[in-house]
Amino acid sequence: MESLKRFITISAVIVFVINSGVNAQTKYFTREGKVEFISKAPLENISGLNKKATSVIDVQNGQIEFSILMKAFEFEKALMMEHFNENYVESSKYPKAVFKGVIENNSTVDWKKDGTYPVKVTGKMTLHGETKDHTAEGKIIIKGGVISAQSEFGIKLTDYKIVIPSLVKDKIAQVVKVTVDLNYEVLKSN
Amino acid sequence: MVVVAIAGAIGWYLYSKPVADISNLKPEYSLEAAELFAEFSGDESGANTKYLGKIIEVTGTIQVLNSDKGGLSVILFTNDEIFGINCGLSAGQDKAYKKYKSGDKIILRGECAGYDMDVVLTRCVIIE
Fold first, then answer.
1. Residues A94-138 pLDDT 10s
2. A48, A38, A61, A54: which is closest to A91 by C-alpha?
3. pTM, whole model, 2 decimals?
4. CA-to-CA distance for B128 and B121, rounded, in angstroms?
């Protein structure tokens, strides 16, 4: 009886240890990511800032996803906010922009060591209901064990069928510059 | 001549009008944080149709207060273990924000941006 109890206890401990190893933290997330876009055009520069982007990174395989609620973009002018939501991105119809991809050179990133690692990310971007292949260069910055990701890329409006009426064509750039700045924390598995 | 000048002035006013302050707008819905979250997690599409872009007043208990270079935000507990109502505060809310800590009850009013891990409200003002 004693040896059976001992066997069960040891088995339980072994299972627990193996399980802990398997569930070791590889996923990080953020829900306060910053995404800003800037449109530079002859008549004026327009920018929108979103501070509620979410993202998940799996450091083991380099999978990276981010998701942006379009209605969370903030603008200086009411008219710009209205045009953006109602006419350009039609946010009531397409509330989220989503990117799903992978860090191509994930093996070159030492996730456990502080440093700045240049990365190339490829995947699919869905915006305004359109899905397109998307590639961007960026940086993974690890400082004091905290993971950040930064990237800058262009979005060609026609790729995502975002239509700018000819009346304001000189006000909006055809390619909008997007800047992404995300600080991650550990995603606790449930 | 005068008509053109007035039309121009009105046009310029409309064009440069800043985004409205939510403390001056009436909420379309008032509900508990857990209720709002349950509606979105149960039926995102239905909840979007109902709440997206609308001004909502939400009551809840503070899970965490965040402040970083992005601004101030308050996250309210829901029945989910991790996620909640994520309220991004408007500029000028810092004085009111300082009066609160985790575990306090709070009422916030903001615009519903949708559901993405948390249910997100933007341009929030602290009501009580």
1. 999 999 999 999 999 999 999 999 999 999 999 999 999 999 999
2. A48
3. 0.86
4. 16
